[in-house]
């Protein structure tokens, strides 16, 4: 609210927030946050002790429902150790979730799905800045990726036994420098072409908005060259 000039100080913001019913502040990384001024607002009579109790009560009620105050023995997750991390069961579940979350907008002449038994006699070209770059495949607020567990489009197709050629065209999502010759050379000899484009956290994240929805840099040119 301070940044939008609704209030003039953190103290005013704290008073307005509490009075409006806000009971939680996202203040990670801030040494001087808004709700640290609540004691001053209380001393000045801008808010009451009963109001604070009313705001705090649902926070602790939620924590109790989540089991934060239960004995460890009552928590079914307390018996888990690091062996469950990247276990086969969890990786299979992640694969199932990925398969079921695909959104197919158009499937001209039944091009998809690509079946492993049909790929051995075909030459595939996988191109674009997202074709073989594990780092850019994760969005904002994602965990720190562990490269050994990441399957890029190129790696996944190669594991299926396909004859795959690869050309990034441009090395990063911004696609400032584009090598058309590299792309045309790989695409020209292919039976099937997969073009992997997008944005990623290098282009847009929280507090890094874009003014339009266009593909960044030369990505649209890359796509047009691959189609032609």
From TrEMBL:
GO biological process: arabinan catabolic process; xylan catabolic process
All residue ranges annotated as the Glycoside hydrolase family 3 C-terminal domain in the record: 103-226
Pfam families registered for this protein in UniProt: Glyco_hydro_3_C
Keyword terms, alphabetized: Glycosidase, Hydrolase
Listed InterPro entries: BXL (IPR044993), GH (IPR017853), Glyco_hydro_3_C (IPR002772), Glyco_hydro_3_C_sf (IPR036881), Glyco_hydro_3_N_sf (IPR036962)
Bilayer-crossing regions: none
Any GO molecular function: xylan 1,4-beta-xylosidase activity
Protein name per its UniProtKB record: XYL2 arabinofuranosidase
The species this protein was found in: Certhia brachydactyla (short-toed tree-creeper)
Gene: Xyl2
């Amino acid at each position: 609210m301070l940044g939008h000039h609704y209030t003039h100080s953190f103290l005013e913001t704290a008073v307005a927030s509490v009075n409006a019913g806000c009971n939680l502040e996202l203040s990670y990384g801030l040494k001087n946050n808004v709700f640290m001024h609540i004691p001053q607002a209380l001393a000045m009579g801008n808010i009451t002790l009963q109001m604070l109790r009313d705001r705090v009560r649902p926070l602790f009620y939620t924590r109790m429902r989540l089991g934060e105050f239960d004995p460890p023995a009552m928590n079914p997750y307390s018996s888990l150790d690091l062996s469950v991390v990247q276990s086969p069961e969890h990786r299979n579940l992640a694969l199932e979730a990925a398969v079921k979350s695909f959104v197919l907008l158009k499937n001209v002449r039944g091009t998809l799905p690509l079946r492993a038994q049909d790929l051995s006699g075909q030459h595939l070209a996988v191109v674009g800045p997202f074709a073989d770059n594990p780092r850019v495949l994760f969005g904002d607020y994602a965990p720190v990726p562990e490269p050994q567990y990441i399957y890029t489009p190129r790696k996944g197709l190669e594991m299926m036994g396909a004859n795959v050629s690869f050309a990034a065209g441009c090395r990063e999502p911004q696609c400032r420098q584009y090598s058309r010759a590299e792309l045309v050379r790989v695409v020209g000899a292919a039976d099937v072409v997969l073009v992997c484009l997008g944005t990623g956290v290098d282009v847009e994240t929280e507090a890094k908005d874009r003014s339009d929805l266009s593909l960044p840099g030369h990505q649209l040119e890359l796509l047009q060259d691959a189609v032609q």
